[in-house]
Amino acid sequence: MACLEWTQDLSVDVKQIDEQHRKLVEMLNSLNEAMLAKRGREAQKAAIDAMVDYTVSHFGLEEKYMKAFGYEGFDAHKAEHDNFTKKAVDLKERVSRAGFVLTLEIVEFLKQWLQGHIRGTDRGYRECFQAHGLH
Asked: How many CB atoms within 10 Å of residue 98?
């Protein structure tokens, strides 16, 4: 059962970034499926590690384009990325230290953040990126 379905309203109409967003949605759904199958605790550490690594790469790409294109909303957007990364690293450290963080907490955090960030903040750069030839 998918926790979050990829729909057109999650698209920023930039193929490379949409593909990365789809991957993040897949990662979320995989973690949710593991949790529902009572494998949440086993899958948790691997999922968080993958999430942190992938988001660092994804955020880096978005930020590279924002800087190159002089995107006016760069500072606020980067701050959101930094806040997400801080939370993700915190979850990663809690899992390493305590061995368990409620998987539902992670799933809900990811779902809410992805929906809000992609549908809101990421949509802000769509016109800028497209004006510079990204489609």
From this structure: 8
CB 79 within 8 A of CB 10: no
Q: Which CATH fold topology does 38-131 show? A: Four Helix Bundle (Hemerythrin (Met), subunit A) (1.20.120)
Residue 117 burial class via C-beta count within 10 angstroms: exposed 0-12, middle 13-18, buried 19 and up: middle
Of residues 41, 38, 30, 29, the one with CA closest to residue 103: 41
pTM for the structure as a whole = 0.88
Distance in angstroms (rounded) separating the CA atoms of residues 65 and 70: 8
Query: How far is residue 27's CA from residue 32's CA, in Å, rounded to a whole number?
Result: 9
CA 37, 45, 83, 10 torsion: positive or negative? Answer: negative
Q: What is the pLDDT of residues 28-58, one digit of tens each?
A: 898 888 878 877 666 677 877 888 889 889 9
**Tens digits of residue pLDDT in 104-135:** 778 888 899 999 999 999 999 999 999 999 99
Among all chains, which residue has been given the structure tokens 């998918």? Answer: 2
Cβ neighbours around 23 below 10 Å, total: 13
Q: And the tokens for 37?
A: 């199958």
